[in-house]
Amino acid sequence: MGAIPKPPQGQFNVLYFASANSFTSKEYDTLPAPLPISQLFDALEEKHSGIKDKILSSCLVTVNLNYVNVPNDDGEDASDSSVVIQAGDEVAIIPPVSSG
Amino acid sequence: MEPNLTERSGEGCYVALTHGHLHAQDIIDRVRSPQAGAIVLFAGTTRDNFAGKPVKELQYSAYSPMALKTMLSICIDIRARHSLESIAMIHRLGTVPIGEESILIAVSAPHRQAAWRAGEEALEDCKKHVEVWKREEFEGEEGVWRANRDGLLGQKIAEKDGKN
């Protein structure tokens, strides 16, 4: 992955790796902030139809190099997660890893 | 200077990512210590097949800052738990031809038992958690992103095993 430019003011970058990178054919997207973490997957689904089921359902998410919990659709209370993505944050979609 | 080498170290731990070749002697020397009676080295090499299907080459990519952070936290944890002198872990990125090293892990300890155990645990933790991805390129068809927990694909890991 090459160098990712800083997001414009009021926005944040979402980085795509491995299968997320192949699915979107992009290294990253830029989205408007603030965005509650519970709305992240829907926001990405709007840009990349099908990504939620095919990719995101098996992925973890980091914000500024820390893993965060993303509430799912199945009745889990979205208020569980108070994380709100802020402008300038670096969000990343982490597919199942395969080092070694 | 190694091509695209990024590294972090501290507390008797060294971790790195590189697009260059891996050198076993270098990583052994990195953990060498007069207090150690054993050095265990693991070298992971790229296999020419996946479940019998011929693999042409492997491509590794990483979320580098995250991968280094996770590698360092694994090493610090394992060094403390097994009372190691030192531990080092380096992963190669980019295209790795078949039969070449993609990862090296070296640990040094006063006695061999701890070194064997720590070396194995370090590799297992690395394969479970480090943010590196392997794509297998096959002859005449599209490549596949491999997942170390294949078979469980689509299942979210509920516990992140204390990973921060």
UniProtKB/TrEMBL annotation, chain A:
<keyword id="KW-0547">Nucleotide-binding</keyword>
<dbReference type="InterPro" id="IPR044672">
    <property type="entry name" value="MOCS2A"/>
</dbReference>
<protein>
    <recommendedName>
        <fullName>Molybdopterin synthase sulfur carrier subunit</fullName>
    </recommendedName>
</protein>
<dbReference type="GO" id="GO:0006777">
    <property type="term" value="P:Mo-molybdopterin cofactor biosynthetic process"/>
</dbReference>
<dbReference type="InterPro" id="IPR016155">
    <property type="entry name" value="Mopterin_synth/thiamin_S_b"/>
</dbReference>
<dbReference type="GO" id="GO:0030366">
    <property type="term" value="F:molybdopterin synthase activity"/>
</dbReference>
<keyword id="KW-0501">Molybdenum cofactor biosynthesis</keyword>
<dbReference type="InterPro" id="IPR012675">
    <property type="entry name" value="Beta-grasp_dom_sf"/>
</dbReference>
<dbReference type="GO" id="GO:1990133">
    <property type="term" value="C:molybdopterin adenylyltransferase complex"/>
</dbReference>
<dbReference type="GO" id="GO:0000166">
    <property type="term" value="F:nucleotide binding"/>
</dbReference>
<dbReference type="Pfam" id="PF02597">
    <property type="entry name" value="ThiS"/>
</dbReference>
<dbReference type="InterPro" id="IPR028887">
    <property type="entry name" value="MOCS2A_euk"/>
</dbReference>
<feature type="modified residue" description="Glycyl adenylate; alternate">
    <location>
        <position position="100"/>
    </location>
</feature>
<feature type="modified residue" description="1-thioglycine; alternate">
    <location>
        <position position="100"/>
    </location>
</feature>
<comment type="pathway">
    <text>Cofactor biosynthesis; molybdopterin biosynthesis.</text>
</comment>
<dbReference type="InterPro" id="IPR003749">
    <property type="entry name" value="ThiS/MoaD-like"/>
</dbReference>
<keyword id="KW-0963">Cytoplasm</keyword>
<comment type="subunit">
    <text>Heterotetramer; composed of 2 small (MOCS2A) and 2 large (MOCS2B) subunits.</text>
</comment>
<dbReference type="GO" id="GO:1990140">
    <property type="term" value="C:molybdopterin synthase complex"/>
</dbReference>
<keyword id="KW-0597">Phosphoprotein</keyword>
<comment type="function">
    <text>Acts as a sulfur carrier required for molybdopterin biosynthesis. Component of the molybdopterin synthase complex that catalyzes the conversion of precursor Z into molybdopterin by mediating the incorporation of 2 sulfur atoms into precursor Z to generate a dithiolene group. In the complex, serves as sulfur donor by being thiocarboxylated (-COSH) at its C-terminus by UBA4. After interaction with MOCS2B, the sulfur is then transferred to precursor Z to form molybdopterin.</text>
</comment>
<comment type="similarity">
    <text>Belongs to the MoaD family. MOCS2A subfamily.</text>
</comment>
From TrEMBL, chain B:
<feature type="binding site">
    <location>
        <begin position="134"/>
        <end position="136"/>
    </location>
    <ligand>
        <name>substrate</name>
    </ligand>
</feature>
<comment type="subunit">
    <text>Heterotetramer; composed of 2 small (MOCS2A) and 2 large (MOCS2B) subunits.</text>
</comment>
<comment type="function">
    <text>Catalytic subunit of the molybdopterin synthase complex, a complex that catalyzes the conversion of precursor Z into molybdopterin. Acts by mediating the incorporation of 2 sulfur atoms from thiocarboxylated MOCS2A into precursor Z to generate a dithiolene group.</text>
</comment>
<keyword id="KW-0963">Cytoplasm</keyword>
<comment type="similarity">
    <text>Belongs to the MoaE family. MOCS2B subfamily.</text>
</comment>
<dbReference type="InterPro" id="IPR028888">
    <property type="entry name" value="MOCS2B_euk"/>
</dbReference>
<keyword id="KW-0808">Transferase</keyword>
<protein>
    <recommendedName>
        <fullName>Molybdopterin synthase catalytic subunit</fullName>
        <ecNumber>2.8.1.12</ecNumber>
    </recommendedName>
</protein>
<dbReference type="GO" id="GO:1990140">
    <property type="term" value="C:molybdopterin synthase complex"/>
</dbReference>
<dbReference type="InterPro" id="IPR036563">
    <property type="entry name" value="MoaE_sf"/>
</dbReference>
<keyword id="KW-0501">Molybdenum cofactor biosynthesis</keyword>
<dbReference type="GO" id="GO:0030366">
    <property type="term" value="F:molybdopterin synthase activity"/>
</dbReference>
<dbReference type="InterPro" id="IPR003448">
    <property type="entry name" value="Mopterin_biosynth_MoaE"/>
</dbReference>
<dbReference type="Pfam" id="PF02391">
    <property type="entry name" value="MoaE"/>
</dbReference>
<dbReference type="GO" id="GO:0006777">
    <property type="term" value="P:Mo-molybdopterin cofactor biosynthetic process"/>
</dbReference>
<feature type="binding site">
    <location>
        <begin position="111"/>
        <end position="112"/>
    </location>
    <ligand>
        <name>substrate</name>
    </ligand>
</feature>
<comment type="pathway">
    <text>Cofactor biosynthesis; molybdopterin biosynthesis.</text>
</comment>
<feature type="binding site">
    <location>
        <position position="127"/>
    </location>
    <ligand>
        <name>substrate</name>
    </ligand>
</feature>
